[in-house]
């Protein structure tokens, strides 16, 4: 049966993929001229890629890994050494590593923390480990209950030393949610930490071998279209048409480039748009329904992705790095980490600026200046002195509303994939699933939405009387 999906981010594409697997015909309408939503990427005038976000894949992403295997493209993930690498602001140019040994969980992570002597004293490590025990013993239920606290409040309640916050959790919180520990819900970093503690390769990191649009999204589109589905770019959902009982009667798709608007009819409908886009398009008749009212409690968080091309190598590390800079979050030298971006002689740094609230409305020049000032502290040998590396070009991508802002108390606002409207479903990393606002969360939400749609369609097929000729 025909299923209309609005949004070709990872959630919409995964939903389409699992619907064709279930024997249905998904038709995906994407507003922009590019696939991928928050993983979208473009080529500049010289053919170099730039992206909405620097994206790291984790071993603890079972649904993403399964999707890649089903598409036959698992080899596109370039797995890095099992380690987490931090800059040390107090020792410019020196890196600190948490090398994770290949031993069973949770001892691998515990040993990685105990073996790191650069960042924490023994007393701090022991108090850290003791503070984590409730999360380890009581598991996800405890972690969910901690949604009422910010991470900083939770760390203080557990008696964990402030140094653990400034050394580790500021970096982790910014990397996971684009927020600082005094803003983020404790549930988010604790969920990630729990996955890393419980899974032997959970914290192992991989990079895609090229742009997510071409190397990840396009194969999903090829899979869908080869099996009778359709994906249409430049096709924004303009309006939901409703039956008198409030169920969806059709989607009005805005006609761009001189085309008129047109109406799409299907057997079921999925919004795989961001929560902000969905809220803007909610039909008046749905606005009084508590399920949809709760969406008001969610909104996207700003983030900025920065690309810097240098005239020589400034970094040799083939991995994700946690900058521990007050302005920047994680970064990577993509000329080392990603096959398609590789350059043996010149660096291309991709960096995430977060939290970005104070920067999202500033000019590119101001953002570049603050980034370069931070980088001169991280790479003093390469970027200061008589012959510093020269910046050849840069590109800055601002996303004023990205993943949902994971502040305390948001978990109850995250909607299920099934809605009170019988033929209408939700996908998106903001919807309720255990993997937060991530690529894994987006893929899982798409899969869960596809399962719910398939169950609904098989139920309606059973109750719809078959016409007798
Ligand atoms: C800077 C940055 C770094 C990140 N780093 C990581 C990382 O390292 N690891 C990780 O796992 N995750 C990371 N993420 C998060 C991850 O990218 C997202 O969680 C995931 O891609 C969200 O997918 P989605 O499909 O739920 O939503 P989206 O990607 O937002 O997709 C929604 C789609 O709907 C479309 N749309 C909107 N309105 C309409 C309309 N009216 N009609 C039709 N279509 C519409 C949009 O154009 C978009 O394509 C990062 C995100 C950013 C921004």
What is the rounded Rg? 23 Å
Alpha-carbon distance between the two ends: 21 Å
Beta strands, count? 20
CATH third-tier fold name of the largest domain: FAD/NAD(P)-binding domain
Largest sheet: 7 strands, mixed
Instruction: Give the overall silhouette.
Output: globular
Quickly give the CATH architecture of the largest domain. 3-Layer(bba) Sandwich
Mean pLDDT: 95
Looking at this protein, list some descriptive labels.
19% strand, seven-stranded mixed β-sheet, alpha/beta, 469 residues, FAD/NAD(P)-binding domain, globular, Polyamine Oxidase, Chain A, domain 2
What do these coordinates show?
The structure is a single chain. The protein is globular, with a radius of gyration of 23 Å. It has helices at 10-21, 62-71, 107-115, 122-145, 151-157, 162-177, 187-198, 212-226, 275-281, 290-293, 334-337, 364-378, 380-383, 439-463, and strands spanning 2-6, 25-29, 41-43, 49-51, 57-58, 77-79, 83-87, 95-99, 205-208, 230-232, 237-242, 248-253, 262-264, 268-271, 303-310, 321-322, 328-333, 348-353, 391-399, 424-426. It has a 7-stranded mixed sheet with strand order 8-7-16-17-18-15-19. The protein has a 5-stranded parallel sheet with strand order 10-2-1-14-20, with helices on one face. The protein has 3 domains: 2-37 and 211-298 and 413-463, FAD/NAD(P)-binding domain, CATH 3.50.50; 81-203, no CATH class; 303-399, Polyamine Oxidase, Chain A, domain 2, CATH 3.90.660.50. It is an alpha/beta fold and 469 residues long. Flavin-adenine dinucleotide (FAD) is lined by residues 6-12, 29-32, 37-39, 52-56, 236-237, 272-274, 277, 303, 305, 352, 399, 402-403, 428-429, 437-442. Residues 6-12, 29-32, 37-39, 52-56, 236-237, 272-274, 277, 303, 305, 352, 399, 402-403, 428-429, 437-442 line the site of flavin-adenine dinucleotide.
């Amino acid at each position: 049966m025909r299923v209309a999906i609005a949004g070709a981010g990872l959630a919409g594409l995964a939903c389409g993929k699992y619907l064709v697997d279930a024997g249905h015909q998904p038709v995906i309408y994407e507003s922009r001229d590019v696939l991928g939503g928050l993983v979208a990427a473009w080529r500049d005038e010289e053919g170099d890629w730039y992206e909405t976000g620097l994206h790291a894949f984790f071993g603890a992403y079972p649904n993403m890994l399964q999707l890649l295997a089903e598409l036959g493209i698992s080899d596109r993930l370039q797995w890095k050494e099992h380690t987490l690498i931090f800059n040390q602001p107090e020792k410019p140019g020196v890196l600190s590593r948490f090398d994770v040994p290949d031993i069973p969980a949770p001892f691998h992570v515990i040993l990685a923390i105990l073996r790191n002597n650069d960042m924490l004293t023994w007393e701090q490590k022991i108090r850290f480990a003791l503070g984590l025990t409730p999360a380890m013993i009581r598991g996800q239920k405890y972690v969910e209950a901690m949604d009422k606290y910010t991470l900083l409040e939770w760390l203080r309640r557990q008696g964990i030393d402030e140094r653990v916050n400034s050394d580790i959790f500021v970096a982790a919180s910014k990397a996971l949610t684009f927020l600082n520990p005094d803003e983020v819900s404790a549930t988010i970093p604790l969920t990630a930490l729990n996955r890393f503690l419980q899974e032997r390769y959970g914290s192992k990191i991989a990079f895609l071998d090229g742009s997510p649009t071409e190397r990840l999204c396009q194969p999903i589109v090829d899979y869908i279209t080869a099996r009778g589905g359709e994906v249409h770019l430049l096709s924004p959902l303009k309006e939901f048409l409703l039956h008198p009982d409030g169920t969806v009667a059709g989607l009005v798709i805005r006609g761009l480039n001189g085309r008129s608007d047109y109406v799409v009819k299907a057997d079921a409908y999925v919004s795989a748009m961001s929560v902000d886009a969905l809220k803007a398009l909610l039909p008046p008749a749905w606005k009084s329904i508590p399920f949809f009212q709760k969406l008001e409690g969610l909104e996207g968080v700003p983030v900025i992705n920065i690309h810097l091309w240098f005239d020589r190598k400034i970094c040799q590390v083939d991995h994700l790095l946690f900058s521990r800079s007050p302005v920047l979050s994680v970064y990577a030298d993509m000329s080392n980490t990603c096959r398609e971006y590789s350059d043996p002689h010149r660096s291309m740094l991709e960096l995430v600026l977060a939290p970005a609230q104070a920067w999202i409305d500033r000019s590119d020049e101001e953002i570049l200046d603050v980034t370069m000032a931070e980088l001169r502290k991280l790479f003093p040998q390469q970027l200061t002195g008589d012959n510093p590396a020269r910046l050849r070009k840069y590109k800055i991508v601002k996303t004023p509303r990205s993943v949902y802002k994971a502040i305390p108390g948001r978990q109850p606002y995250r909607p299920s994939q099934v809605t009170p409207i019988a033929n209408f479903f939700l996908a998106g990393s903001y919807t309720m699933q255990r993997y937060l606002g991530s690529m894994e969360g987006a893929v899982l939400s798409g899969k869960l939405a596809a399962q719910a749609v398939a169950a609904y369609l098989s139920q309606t097929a059973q109750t719809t009387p078959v016409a007798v000729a």
